Structures are given as C-alpha cells and as structure tokens.
Automatic annotation (TrEMBL):
<keyword id="KW-1133">Transmembrane helix</keyword>
<keyword id="KW-0472">Membrane</keyword>
<feature type="transmembrane region" description="Helical">
    <location>
        <begin position="88"/>
        <end position="120"/>
    </location>
</feature>
<protein>
    <submittedName>
        <fullName>Isoprenylcysteine carboxylmethyltransferase family protein</fullName>
    </submittedName>
</protein>
<dbReference type="InterPro" id="IPR007318">
    <property type="entry name" value="Phopholipid_MeTrfase"/>
</dbReference>
<keyword id="KW-0489">Methyltransferase</keyword>
<feature type="transmembrane region" description="Helical">
    <location>
        <begin position="47"/>
        <end position="67"/>
    </location>
</feature>
<dbReference type="GO" id="GO:0008168">
    <property type="term" value="F:methyltransferase activity"/>
</dbReference>
<keyword id="KW-0812">Transmembrane</keyword>
<dbReference type="GO" id="GO:0032259">
    <property type="term" value="P:methylation"/>
</dbReference>
<keyword id="KW-0808">Transferase</keyword>
<dbReference type="GO" id="GO:0012505">
    <property type="term" value="C:endomembrane system"/>
</dbReference>
<dbReference type="Pfam" id="PF04191">
    <property type="entry name" value="PEMT"/>
</dbReference>
Amino acid sequence: MSVTTAVFQQGKRMRFLWLAVPLLLTPILLSQSAWPSETLPRQGMEFMGSAFIILCVAGRCWASLYIGGRKNRELITNGPYKYTRNPLYFFSSLGLAGIGLTFGSLAIAAFYFLFGYLVFAYVSARESTALDGLFGDAYREYCHKVPAFFPRLRRSAGDVAHQLSLTFNPVVLKRTAIDSSCFLLAIPGSELIESLQLAKLLKPLLQLF
C-alpha cells in the first residue's frame, strides 16, 4: 500500500465510527443505571462524565490549533503532541467514557472507552505507517520519545527548545469545535432517556453499575 493510499483511507476509517453509532446506542437504550438518580454515586458519576466531555471538547480544540491544516504536511511535535502522538484520539476516547458516566454506568463508560481505544489504536497504527513514509527518521525519533495514546505527562529537557510558533486554521478549528460539540448532546440526552424510562415509554432490559 502506498503512502498516498494509506493517508486517503483515513477518511474511510473515521466514517466507520459514525456507522458504529447504533452499536454504541444499544447499551444505553436497553439498560438503566443500577444507582437511583438521587444517590451520591450516581450524581458523582454524572458530574465526572460531564467533566470528561468538556475536557474532550477542549482537548480536541487544543489539538486542532496545532494540527489543523497541517496533517500529513508537517510533523507536529509541540502543544498536546509533545505528550501523546494522538491527542485527538485520546480526548475522543475520554469523551466516550464521559458519555457512559453521564448515563450513570461505569460498565458503559468502560465499554465506550475500550471501544474508542481499540478503534483509534487500529487507525493510528495505519496512520503511523503513512507518517513513517512521509517523515522518515524524524518521525521514528518522535515515536521513540512520545507515546502513541496515553499521554506522557512529564516533559523532557528538549521540549522547550523545540517549541514552534503557533499558527492555526480558523476554519478547521471551527469544524473541530462543531464536531466535538456532539459529545455535549449526551448530557441532555441522558436526562431525556431517564425521563422516557420513568414514563414507561422506554423499558430497560437490565441494570448496569
């Protein structure tokens, strides 16, 4: 497979995520939280879920400031990219976990995060092949220093010395902000589904912790 083909297929792999939406909705529609809405554990999970979703939106926009309009053209190693090679994927997985928490379920949150991790790990592995062909030794050195998914929070001595001036594409940033805002729909969505369940219009088949 050529580098051009590998890069081109990234769009196809991302469209797969939208096709997976029915799979992700199934556990939400067929279950309910084992914790009543007024209990402290449930409220704590909902708060944490909302925090994860907000962090997801902010993190994706942060990454877009650096990668927007530059993907596959420049090797970006600063901003969030000095902590993880795939900040967009990491924050997206965090947002998926947040969706599960807003519905009051640790099990759904874990399933969503694992789903995101596995899908994005596959996508990033394919992208890595293309980036290696595009940037060669520079990319391999970057891979040696920065983890692929989970952020490395400590900074190496050379981080500051290699800072680049920040220029961003406002169109790409706007599109990322709009796309990321879809995660926020989980917050009112969880309230709607709970209301439908209380009204007996949506009958859950099982309870999940």
